[in-house]
Design a protein that fits this description.
By secondary structure, this protein is an alpha/beta fold. The protein has a single domain, classed as Cytosolic phospholipase A2 catalytic domain, CATH 3.40.1090. It has 13 helices and 8 strands.
């Protein structure tokens, strides 16, 4: 009997990706406890999708060691966010003075982000990822979605440096400048954060999985090729629910400038919710057992800031606490996910 195809989908959310790391760290610890003391979560999924901060995390989890297994644990990714987040999102006093609220230029310099990505990934190519990936971005020149897929990167036309695709998926408008990158073939792209259309990339991951010949790509004869929804386990993790209310009185005479930030917030949140709605409805068409194979993990932010670039030590602490609180309240489901990953490995 064929094993289920296991898909991990990671939302965007800037520094709020710390919450995702905390939840994944717990699942990884259960895998170590129940299956292998050296288990790394990247080895237990067949496809990992990510947008923005989720795309960077996906690339870290798929970084290969010398045996083509996952090199890094979730804790390594958590360290990257917690220790280096401030340098990535830091805005100097001078920048604030000449560019208040990001009105005239992007709010954050991309140099620190690019430096950290270079330190982590070096010249790693996505064709060398341990498993298939789907990392989102948007091509603002050709005006279409751009997906980075490691399983289709055998040709230099579709092969990229990992550091470049991470720079592209994280290029959130008003935060970072667009990414200007090239494939290994030399084709140039001007890209921004995939969150403009898929801040929750789970539905994109489902569509991508439908066309993958997993038994061949993973060199595992028991894997299901071109899987249907009933053949998939999808674990989709959000970076904290943002439900800031906006009143009619606040916006009855609002102009373009006043609408910029609320509109970004609303578009990101509505995309996340719509994707979750569609997947829930798709799984509801299945039998009793299979409909339980969709897991949407969306924590409350608790006392953490909804801002994607709040890297104060207090907020990083609160983000970690929000993740721990979610684990405490949802331990049964998280343990069940770990058991499913083991059973279908």
């Amino acid at each position: 009997m064929s094993k289920k195809i296991k898909i991990l989908s990671l939302d965007g959310g800037g520094i709020r990706g710390i919450i995702t790391c905390v939840i994944l760290k717990y699942i990884e610890e259960q895998l170590q406890k129940l299956d292998n003391p050296n288990a790394k979560i990247g080895d237990y999924f067949d496809l990992i999708a990510g947008t923005s901060t989720g795309g960077i995390l996906a690339a870290i989890l798929l970084y290969p060691d010398s045996d083509k297994k996952a090199k890094y644990s979730v804790e390594t990714a958590l360290d990257l966010y917690a220790k280096h987040g401030e340098s990535i999102f830091n805005v100097s006093f001078w920048q604030q003075l000449i560019n208040p609220f990001g009105l005239f230029n992007e709010r954050i310099s991309q140099k620190a982000l690019e430096r950290q990505l270079e330190n982590v990934f070096g010249n790693l190519e996505i064709k060398d990822f341990t498993k298939p990936c789907l990392i989102t971005s948007y091509d603002i020149f050709h005006r279409k979605a751009k997906f980075f897929t490691s399983h289709e990167a055998g040709s230099d036309l579709e092969n990229f440096y990992a550091k470049d695709i991470c720079r592209a998926t994280a290029a959130a408008p008003t935060y970072f400048e667009p990414a200007n990158i090239k494939s290994l073939y030399g084709q140039e792209f001007t890209l921004i954060d995939g969150g403009v259309y898929a801040n929750n990339p789970a539905l994109c991951a489902y569509a991508e999985a439908r066309k993958i010949e997993f038994s061949k790509v993973l060199d595992q004869p028991g894997k299901k090729d071109f899987p249907k929804i009933s053949d998939m386990i999808i674990v989709s993790i959000g970076t904290g629910q943002v439900l800031k209310p906006y009143t009619y009185r606040q916006f009855e005479n609002a102009g373009k400038v006043k609408w910029i930030q609320p509109l970004i917030d609303i578009l990101l949140s509505s995309n996340v919710e719509t994707t979750d709605y569609h997947l829930k409805k798709m799984y509801e068409t299945l039998g009793t057992r299979n409909r339980q194979n969709y897991h949407r993990l969306m924590p409350s932010l608790k006392n953490a800031s909804p801002e994607m670039d709040d890297v104060s030590s207090k907020n990083i602490y609160e983000l970690i606490q929000a993740g721990l609180s979610y684990i405490d309240q949802n331990r049964k489901e998280l343990n069940e996910i770990a058991k499913k990953l083991i059973k279908n490995s």
